[in-house]
UniProtKB/TrEMBL annotation:
Gene3D superfamilies: 3.40.50.2020. Allosterically activated by GTP. One of its GO terms (molecular function) is uracil phosphoribosyltransferase activity. Uracil binds at I202, G207, D208, A209. Transmembrane segments: none annotated. It catalyses: UMP + diphosphate = 5-phospho-alpha-D-ribose 1-diphosphate + uracil. Its EC number is 2.4.2.9. It comes from Limnothrix redekei LRLZ20PSL1. Belongs to the UPRTase family. The keyword Nucleotide-binding applies. This is Uracil phosphoribosyltransferase. The keyword Nucleotide-binding applies.
Length: 217
């Protein structure tokens, strides 16, 4: 069977709660950031459920020997936050992947053309063959930014199957684009919204995630 994009919207009350907080236009930046931290935490928790590399050994309890499973340091893990908005999820994501390296990628959309451009790229020249990578990108709108990020990662040796995206709101244009170009990719998102308007905003969405997180209106 051909590979297909898989999109998970975990049906969790905490995710729904914090999604409501970030959607509310009255939420101030401090609370908006806390809510994104919580969303990053719970979506990452769901995303790595059967994906974190583990190894089983034995430990001595005070009463005897028993098997114990630990996070394996052998498989390289990484998180790639897409600046700026992706930074706001990181406080929640990083404790879930404590051994991950962080590689920053700064992208900004031109407000008229909606084309992304890259202003910071701290990706390694090549990812290790067994690497597993989480992308932190809260908004998947037209899909231009995530497509640019995926191209940077796949040019550095990763396959879509090695990558999972943590998103907050995903819209159909971005999902269609990713499905066409990167089947095998997996997305964990708090919501799939109806549409993207003529100005590139997700509707109903939550507005400009970067501006709301950092108070730069
Ligand atoms: O799917 P797209 O249509 O490409 O839109 C999504 C991008 O737009 C926002 O970034 P923005 O350019 O606003 O930068 P910021 O995070 O610094 O605010 C958002 O954080 C995504 O990266
Ligand atoms: O709705 C949108 C679309 C792109 N980027 C955002 O921050 N919000
Ligand atoms: Mg922005």
């Amino acid at each position: 069977m051909p590979l297909q994009l898989r999109v998970y919207v975990p049906p969790h009350a905490l995710i729904q709660h914090w999604l409501g907080v970030v959607r509310d236009a009255q939420t101030p930046p401090t609370l908006f950031r806390s809510a994104l931290t919580e969303l990053g935490r719970w979506l990452a928790y769901e995303a790595v459920r059967e994906w974190l590399p583990t190894e089983t050994t034995e430990v001595e309890t005070p009463l005897g020997t028993c098997p114990a499973t630990f996070i394996s340091p052998a498989t390289p893990m990484a998180v790639v936050p897409i600046l700026r908005a992706g930074l706001a999820l990181m406080e929640g994501i990083l404790p879930v992947v404590p051994l991950a390296n962080v590689y920053h990628l700064g992208l900004v959309r031109n407000e008229e053309t909606l084309e992304p451009s890259c202003y910071l790229n701290r990706l390694p020249a090549q990812f290790p063959a067994e690497a597993r990578v989480l992308i932190s990108e809260p908004m998947l709108a037209t899909g231009g930014s995530i497509e640019a990020a995926m191209k940077e990662l796949t040019q550095r040796g990763l396959t879509p199957e090695q990558i999972r995206i943590i998103s907050i709101v995903a819209a159909p244009p971005a999902l269609q684009r990713l499905n066409q170009q990167f089947p095998g990719l997996v997305i964990y998102t708090a919501a799939i919204d109806e549409s993207v308007n003529d100005h590139g905003w997700i509707v109903p969405g939550l507005g400009d995630a970067g501006d709301r997180a950092f108070g730069t209106f």
